Amino acid sequence: MDIVIETLMAVLGLKALAMLVLGVVIGMVVGALPGLSATMGVALALPFTYGLDPMAALGLLAGIHNGASQGGAIPAILLRIPGTPGSVVTSWDGYPLAQRGDAGAAIQLAAVSSAVGGMIGATTLAVLGPSLAAVTLSFGPPEMFGIAIFGLVCVSVLIGPNLLKGLLSALLGLLLASVGFDDVTGYERFSFGIPQLAPGISELAVMIGLFSLPPAWEIARSAEVGAQLDTVRIVLRKGVWTVRQVWRSWLRASGIGVGLGILPGSSVGAFLAYATERAASKHPETFGKGAVEGLAAAESVNNADNAAAMIPALTLGIPGSAIAAMMLGALVIQGLQPGPQLFQTAPTVVYGYALQMFLGSALLVVLGGVVASRAYAQVLRLPQTMILFMVVAMTAIGAFASANEMFPVHVAFAFGLLGVLLRRLGFPIVPIIIGLVLGKQIEFNLQVSLMMGDGSLLILLQRPVSAAILLAALALTLFLVATRLRRARRAMTGR
Amino acid sequence: MRDRIATVGGAALFGVLGCAAFIKAGSYTMGGANVFPQTVAAAMVVCAAGLVLTEVLRGGKPRAATEALEDGLDVVGPRMLWAILLSAIYVAVIPYLGLGTASFLLIAGGSWSLGLRRPVVVLAGAAIFALIVPWMFRHFLHIRPPAELLATIFAGG
Question: A187 vs B30: CB contact, 8 Å cut-off?
Fold first, then answer.
């Protein structure tokens, strides 16, 4: 009971609540701007959390996460330009609705659907989290090693179309994690005499550089979009959709979002939920032509997996997405050690975060509705070239703030360039971050496991839980290899 | 073809990095500090070789649509290169000009050079950003950004 009261007081405190509202508004603006994403928004906001207390910091980031997921729907519906990668599916039915003169109803449906999905995801986090954390706390180093490897493999093989490219990105992340002092031996590695590298490479600088700079520079290539807005009017016409019509879609899509959100690396939720709705519909021919069920499913699933993706991060210490990795970074900034022990050492923070995700989702109905969306839509008129350079400047300022010196700025810039190169070569970026975040944990647990097994790796297979988890990672990889080989063979034979 | 070059080029890059890391980590022999980085580096080389091998086996056969590079991503383009160059210059001059001044010049000059011809918007946007963001860092986060050149000159004068 004490925890409930403490959590409510922490979350509903003026500063934390103000930061949550501010976060949702910032997130909506970031999401509404094509080229900027929730990941970039959270990355850029991360350095600002240094001066905040834990609940205010998490509130700001939770608000941006939720707001950006829904904000992406605005240009997707109005202009068929997905504001975020997750809102591609939103545009399939949202844009035809806007073309029919129902942009207002489509935006309203998107906001309510996002809110429902987000609240279901947050509730799942609060309900499932403690039990999973309790189980995880009984695990030793071999099991934790297995879980970290499973999470890394999932992210690497599920995130992109090419399994080997995903694995190579993850391995690069692991290699970067071994820069600096080794946690067990204290030996300094790969620092090349640079004193700033001795404590390890700055995760924050790498995250900001990889997720902010490449998409910002991409903006330089794209055309301005604001002018097209003049042809769209956001007017609310009632009766276009009803709760009775879409509640099943909300539940199905949220279920899919939560299920896939828990699985690290999954990025197909919106497509799967849309396909499910289409299959379940009595009028599948309306999909792609303004089906409200399709729009409801796309938005619910996008927000349902926001909080769900934090379940493995908070209970197992395995971030399943880039934003989850950044949230773990935010906890470290606050002096908290992410992992299952957090449910015991700082329960107010964990439950408070779940409540903030819930409230942040509920706020979408108010802050993401028709009237507010008219204002957010105006950000599409902002000169994109200017936004590009503002993001670059924010990246530099944020990286500088992480250590109060120029070195992290150089690191962020170098990783921005690396991000551009890797995108061009078709290598995914997210596994690098997950590898970097998990690297120290994997190495530490491996070294301790080796000590426990008198130098033998067999201990990993002798303990049933770690053996099962490692075999599951292997099975998943082999399954995906087999599936892709079969698909490639079919493509070659033309069947 | 460009997908193939990108994949093989990327694999070569990772392969070389893996080899270099493996050799460098070989010198960290104290207490087994070399084991993890050498294992990772070796796995990197194996995966890179596997990637090249799959490309060789694929030959000139068509790639699945999902595996093809995103359209246009292979073209960096002069505008993007210009944006990157300006960003590099910006990072280089921050210690000399200060965050605010350098940010103002980047936002105003960069936007103008990329074709934004709305002087009031450009100057006002750049000025507001350059004044507010460093101020927020100084007052809310208690972080002192590099000293502003203009402020130093005015203070000295």
Answer: yes
